[in-house]
Amino acid sequence: MEVLLLSSLSIKSSIRDYKVFFQQSLIKCLNNELHADDVIIIDENVFNNLQSEVQKYITKGKHIFINATEEQKSYTALSPIIENVISNQFRRGNRLIAFGGGITQDITAFIASILYRGVEWIFFPTTLLAQADSCIGGKTSINIGKFKNQLGNFYPPTKIYIIPEFVKTLPELDFKSGMGEMLHFYLVSGKKDFEYYQDRYNRAFTDEKILLELVKRNLEIKKGFIERDEFDKGERLLLNYGHSFGHAIESLTNYEIPHGIAVSYGMDMANFISVKLGFIEHDVRQAIRTQLEKIWEGTCINELDASDFEKALSRDKKNIGNTYQLILTKGIGNMLKQGVTPNKEFTDLLKEYLTA
């Protein structure tokens, strides 16, 4: 019988309710879940790191390998994948099964949402970032031309399986990226959850049980936001804390700085501006920065140009007109949406931060 590590988590959605299952054995899970007519979409790098027994199990069924890159996530690059799915005699009642991180998730979810006007899909997230965050919420984001994440919709999976063995092979930078993404939820949630995260941070790198506790609590925090504001119209926007700046950092470093680490810098930038605007005291920023530094240790953004940074920031899809829509803070657990009009004062703040 399958070993359940932690209780499952149910997510309510107006599209369809769905569940997250925390399970130990991948091969047992596949035995119980996969149907003969399912089509697996799997990141080739993920496949190469699987045990041979699991590889054989996947390749004996219908499967499609993809390269999980930003180029693969483009609108035009989806066409051959869709043709491949249909050529596998895929029917309305069949399911797509995604193995991979956020890019594989976006590709599979978007295809599932438009194929035959919507088919079921199941997600096996293989990165810490995907397990702890993007696997729930239902967002899909697809690139078109040079514009990142400008197409998309909301289309959650029917089931999500969190399998610990996937994150054991992650490079440290990708692991820290997941920890950085989680941190922004804990900070938005409040002081008690932030302390919960801090207490477990170091142990999470070596203790599977501690890591799973952090992942589950993180999903519980996000669950509350998405069930109250499923389509990102109000309260859920607070979860963009650190993200406007983080996306600019990703773009300017050509994604060499992973998402969760870029968001960690982004949170510090938001806190820096919050200090300058009088929303928080310097010691509040410093208390948070002490934890953030552990995540971005070994990386650097000081070489980024403030003018280039502001150009990247101006392309953020959350902006309204000529106004940057930033999530700033009045303290841990007290984030706010703040419109900032581009001007010399704001540019000087960016220069001050980037050259400090």
Largest sheet features? 7 strands, mixed
At the third CATH level, what is the topology name of the largest domain?
Dehydroquinate synthase-like, alpha domain
Helix and strand pattern: EEHEHHEHEHEHEEEHHHHHHHEEH
Instruction: Supply the number of structural domains.
Output: 2
CATH superfamily placement of the largest domain: Dehydroquinate synthase-like - alpha domain
Question: Mind telling me the C-alpha Rg?
Answer: 20 Å
If you average the pLDDT, what whole number results?
95
Termini distance?
56 Å
Shape-level CATH architecture of the largest domain: Up-down Bundle
- Low-pLDDT ranges: none
Structural class assignment? alpha/beta
The best one-word shape is globular
Assigned CATH class of the largest domain:
Mainly Alpha
- Across the major sheet, the strand order is 1-2-9-6-5-3-4
What's the count of strands?
11
> What share of residues is helical?
40-55%
Beta-strand proportion: 15-25%
Multimerization status = single chain
Q: Gist?
A:
The chain is an alpha/beta fold. The protein has helices at residues 26-33, 44-48, 52-59, 78-87, 102-114, 128-134, 172-189, 191-204, 208-228, 243-252, 259-276, 282-296, 306-314, 344-354; strands at 4-11, 18-23, 39-43, 62-66, 95-100, 120-125, 142-144, 147-151, 159-162, 324-329, 335-340. Helix 7 packs across helix 9.
Essential attributes:
single chain; 356 residues; alpha/beta; Rossmann fold; Dehydroquinate synthase-like, alpha domain; 2 domains; 7-stranded mixed sheet; 14 helices; globular
Explain what you see.
The protein has about 350 residues and is an alpha/beta fold. It folds into two domains: about 5-170, Rossmann fold (3-Layer(aba) Sandwich); about 185-355, Dehydroquinate synthase-like, alpha domain (Up-down Bundle). It contains 14 helices and eleven strands. It has helices at about 25-35, 45-50, 50-60, 80-85, 100-115, 130-135, 170-190, 190-205, 210-230, 245-250, 260-275, 280-295, 305-315, 345-355; strands at about 5-10, 20-25, 40-45, 60-65, 95-100, 120-125, 140-145, 145-150, 160, 325-330, 335-340. The protein has a seven-stranded mixed beta sheet. Strands 7-8 form a two-stranded antiparallel ribbon. The protein has a two-stranded antiparallel sheet with strand order 10-11. A hairpin with a 2-residue loop joins β7 and β8 (about 145-150). The radius of gyration is 20 Å and the shape is globular. About 40% of the residues are buried.
